[in-house]
Design goal:
The chain is mainly alpha-helical. The protein has a domain of 128 residues: Helix Hairpins. It is built from six helices and two strands; from the N terminus they run βαβααααα. The protein has a two-stranded antiparallel sheet. Helix 2 crosses helix 6, helix 3 packs antiparallel against helix 4 and helix 4 packs antiparallel against helix 5. The longest helix is centred in the C-terminal third of the chain and has 35 residues. The relative contact order is 0.12.
Length: 192
Amino acid sequence: MPEMITREGEDVRDRGLEEALERPNAARVIPDERVGFPRSLRCAIQGIERTFATQRNMRIHGVAASLAAVASALLDLGPLELLLVAGVAAAVMAAELVNTAIEAAVDLATLERHPLARTAKDAAAGAVLVLAALSAVVGAAVFGPKLVRLQLRPDGLEWAAAVAIPAVAFGIRIAMLRRRRPAGAPGSVAVP
């Protein structure tokens, strides 16, 4: 197994990669290293933090998910209802992460305006919109009847506090990350 794939293409097995490396803004060296699980997990968490710190829509989805979590803790929801609310909230945020990755990859691939770049970005944003609309429908279906009857969980305030405190702590972490922008890189965030 080669240690690295170079621009010259000595160890390049995939012709598509070789062609991509010929582009002027392509990376010069791509390391072929094995990454352990702890490092992968750290990179994934940094990606989530960076997306929250740089993408306004991700912060909006995060606030909506936090409010849904607090409402789920206060209201007397069954296990399937809790699973449904958590599932659609996670799906919306996962779609926003993918949307951000696609936008970054398209921006990295070309600095020019291109119809295909626009299609990729618009389609990714459309996927987020579809899931956000679904989450609103699910929220109305799950929370609506409970709110009309004001059917509260007996220990709901304690559960709501247990959900809200980590959400607020995460919000503070994101606010701190947003303040640490490297000079000359608007919108970018250096995550440790």
